[in-house]
Write a structure and sequence with these properties.
19 helices, mainly alpha, globular
């Protein structure tokens, strides 16, 4: 093969690699939701076709190199179990395909360029920003917003958006659920604050994203998302820089909270922002508005698990079994729901996998700090991976991220980033 042909091959391979990476990040936000909720998505065929395309592109790439190491082996094992269990669940074929896509990308497609990944994450920032602006438009110009979503989503999803708004449960922005909007906005906030951006941009867009996150009314995303970001300063920095970052975050939090406390009394009681602020002003676990019946859901999950502690009652059984005011719902706690559905054995694999993935991420981040400057793409990506991963497992205490694809696939992106960075460290230290 002559030099010209070799250049063409490498150029084509690079183009294919970039395409796969960008298509996967685009699926993380917003296509994992849109391909199931937009006006044309009357069946799951669009999502299935997109997943099939991505898997095919990965398999035909020369960079596809399937590998599992000791740090992510339990995560791989749990995903395999999720694939198996979803096939035994009615309507679980799409979840199987989504989990299969995650396995392909995390464990097979790990040879992409760091610079390509760094740029591709701008997709998450752009759409998260659009979603935050959508939340603000929904609050200020509701009629205009309603006209937009009426043509964007399926009728049943439009009904959900309008019901959530009518019941003052939060704004959806350009997503069919408040939780999906909060996930997109939170990811954009992480990228804005951790990537190397001008301070003016961080202040302006950070304010927009934070306001959008508040308007979703998702208190768990707000509290646990900010907590994960705060912890990233401790694992991502050292010495004086760590102190400065921690101090800056505390001052920012004080200013924001103080401003909200001053503004909240002048807002209507049923205003979304006022409800979020009052939650923290008068926090009481006995308050139904805070718990949303979670105490009952937690109790039901524990009772279900106790009746079959080792193997549980089967994947998806909780939602089919528990009757919550005539509705079927998840337990709003990943760990308790796994205990009820799959028992202690699989729950232990899930928890141990989480511990190993987080420890490995912190270990990789510390190694990268010794090898690269603080503002390098490698170190920044490691911090982003830390936030993606830690938020998922923290949110699992109050939500059901394992059963929401936008949460699960963001976790997968974090694990994939860390796996790729681990390869960078190994190559540098050989």
């Amino acid at each position: 093969m002559n030099v010209n042909n070799l250049v063409k091959v490498n150029s084509g391979e690079r183009h294919n690699k970039d395409l796969v990476l960008n298509l996967f990040v685009l699926y993380v936000t917003p296509l994992c939701v849109y391909l199931q909720s937009m006006f044309f998505a009357t069946t799951n065929i669009w999502a299935a076709a997109y997943i099939s395309l991505l898997c095919g592109l990965m398999l035909t790439s020369r960079k596809f190199n399937f590998s599992v190491n000791k740090w992510d082996s339990l995560f791989f094992l749990f995903l395999l179990y999720a694939c198996y269990a979803s096939l035994r669940t009615e309507g679980g074929l799409l979840y199987f395909m989504q989990t299969f896509l995650i396995i392909f990308f995390v464990f097979g497609y790990t040879k992409y360029q760091i610079s390509d990944l760094y740029r591709s994450l701008d997709i998450l920032f752009v759409f998260g920003s659009i979603c935050a602006v959508g939340c603000i438009i929904q609050e200020l110009w509701n009629g205009f917003y309603t006209d937009i979503v009426a043509h964007l989503f399926k009728s049943e999803d439009v009904d959900v958006i309008l019901r959530l708004e009518e019941e003052e449960m939060g704004n959806c922005g350009l997503m069919p659920q408040t939780g999906s909007a909060a996930e997109c906005i939170l990811n954009a906030l992480y990228i804005l604050l951790l990537k190397h951006n001008p301070r003016k941009k961080k202040v302006i867009w950070g304010s927009i994203l934070f306001l959008g996150l508040l308007l979703t009314g998702k208190r768990a995303h707000l509290f646990m998302g900010m907590f994960a970001l705060f912890l990233s300063f401790f694992v991502g920095f050292e010495g004086k820089r760590r102190t400065n970052k921690a101090l800056a975050s505390v001052i920012t939090a004080v200013v924001l909270v103080g401003g909200l406390l001053l503004v909240a009394p002048f807002l209507p009681e049923d205003n979304t922002i006022a409800k979020v602020v009052n939650t923290f002003r008068h926090f009481d676990l006995a308050d139904e508005d805070i718990m949303h019946g979670r105490a009952l859901l937690f109790t039901e999950a524990i009772l279900m698990g106790n009746s079959a502690p080792l193997i549980g009652h089967g994947w998806g059984s909780y939602k089919k079994t528990v009757d919550y005011h005539g509705l079927s719902t998840d337990a709003h706690n990943i760990y308790l729901q796994l205990y009820a559905e799959v028992g202690l054995i699989v729950l232990s694999i899930f928890v141990l996998a989480a511990v190993l993935v987080i420890i490995n991420n912190i270990k990789t981040l510390k190694q990268l700090r010794r090898l690269y400057p603080e503002n390098s793409q490698e170190v920044i990506l490691a911090k982003l991976a830390f936030c993606f991963i830690l938020f998922f497992y923290l949110y699992g205490l109050s939500g059901n991220g394992l059963y929401n694809i936008e949460c699960l696939i963001t976790l997968a992106l974090g694990v994939s980033i860390n796996k790729r960075l681990q390869q960078v460290v190994e190559a540098k230290t050989i």
